[in-house]
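go over both lines:
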Amino acid sequence: MVAMPMKSNPPREPGAPLSTSSAALVAEANALVPPISVDEAKSLVGSRDVLFVDIREPGEWEREGIIPGAHRAPRGMLEFWVDPDSPYYRPALDDGRRLLLYCGSAWRSALAAAALVRMGRTDVTHLAGGFSAWRAADGPVEEYPPGGQR
């Protein structure tokens, strides 16, 4: 096994600020892929041209429900599931529809949307405020799994 050379950055003390904060990464992602409003997203539920993609973790789906008809794709697998060259490719995420990603509060979805754009997807956006904003605006929610069976 060959050791990978490390950059010669000075050591960082635990708890010291990072060179780039997570908030800065999210702001950069939102600049690349601006989110759409909850009101606009509500008008797209049931659209043949848009696939809502819930990138939260399975426990969140079970606890809080999902947007009706949303495809579930945990954040940790999303890039693999949309890539035709990946052994984990899921054609359901590459069927010609625009992807509308959402998570709990729009931080994970911002980063995910930006990653997909960098991979070459031009048909992706994400939900401003995430699922928490969706619920606050009385957006429709269905339980997951259907019927409450776990």
About this structure: The mean pLDDT is 93. The domain at 25-143 is CATH 3.40.250.10 (Oxidized Rhodanese; domain 1). The CA atoms of residues 32 and 114 lie 6 Å apart. Residues 107-119 form the longest helix (13 residues).
